[in-house]
What does this fold into?
Amino acid sequence: MFGRKLNTKTNRLTALFIIVFLAGIMLYFINSNEKIGSWEYRIIGTVQSLLYLILIAAWCGLTRHRLIQRGLRKYISLTCLFLMLWIVLRGLKYYIFAPGTDAARYCWYAYYIPLMFYPACVLTAVLHIGKPDDWKLPRNKVLIFLIPAVIVLIVLTNDLHQLIFFFPSDSITWSDFDYRRGILYALPFSWYSVCVLLSLSVMIKRYRIPQIHRISTKILLLPSVFGVIYDLQYVTEHALFFSDIIVVLCALTVLTFESAIRVGYIRSNSHYLDTFRQSSVAARIYDKDGHLKYRSGSSDFYETDLPDQIFDQGSYIRDDIRYRFQRITNGYVVWQENISELLQIQKQLESANEYLQDKNLILRRQYETKIERRRL
It folds into this structure.
């Protein structure tokens, strides 16, 4: 019953995420008909950005709660932070600062901070999959973060060399409305594609879960492949149905990680409740008010069976059953242990001890008698 409730809750959350995301997409198309810079354009765009920020933050919080491995949890959280920074910079450029201003241009340049670093975080997170919890990135892989740092530096100093974006000499203001692509324009997007392809190769190489169907593998790889294709289309200026690259890549990144968790490639505690229900350990979990929240299938005891001493002493033995008590966050857990075999062994040891004591007493008396006879 609890497993079905958990699945229902997960499905409802998934449906809610999809609805909110589709609402953001709908606002995008509505806003495309508004005049750039108008109040309607700014308000609708700001609401759209807030929806995306809420979605990413909520998914990050839920994912941190589900993930088991500490390193993986760290780099997925960093990925989400960079995605949120990307959305914030997008909102500032289009909906806060006036078009063509220096502030809008520098927000445009700053796009490349999350664009360069979040693929590196994704690759690092993938490298952590299947590793021990204390595993750390080798020092020779520091290039994963050094390369994007160099690219970001080149982009942020574009006004000095114009290798990424080239502005006409007769342009009054430098903005994304009037620019040409420099000789290094494809460099940032190449780095993104390299990170995605490397992540895919690592995932395929380490995909060793026999119970997962082949279709699940295709589902897992599909968002990343689509992201590379979209990236190439964007760089080569092909027509795109949805030209907001920031939203597309953010959505594909979240979808990739979520698919990996759903198919079991990334270990999570999503199915712990089912495991607990099927466990042979007779246990029950209560909230801090003493209300039953979860119980294993083999727990056949009731709250009335629990003596008051267990809450003070931590354990209590009744007949052949030992009840154990342990406090946990926002509640406590109580479980049973059948110690009939241990009690039987204890009786045998006690019987053997009594026999040895009697035998020792007899031998001592025989020895004393023997000494007494020698004296006589």
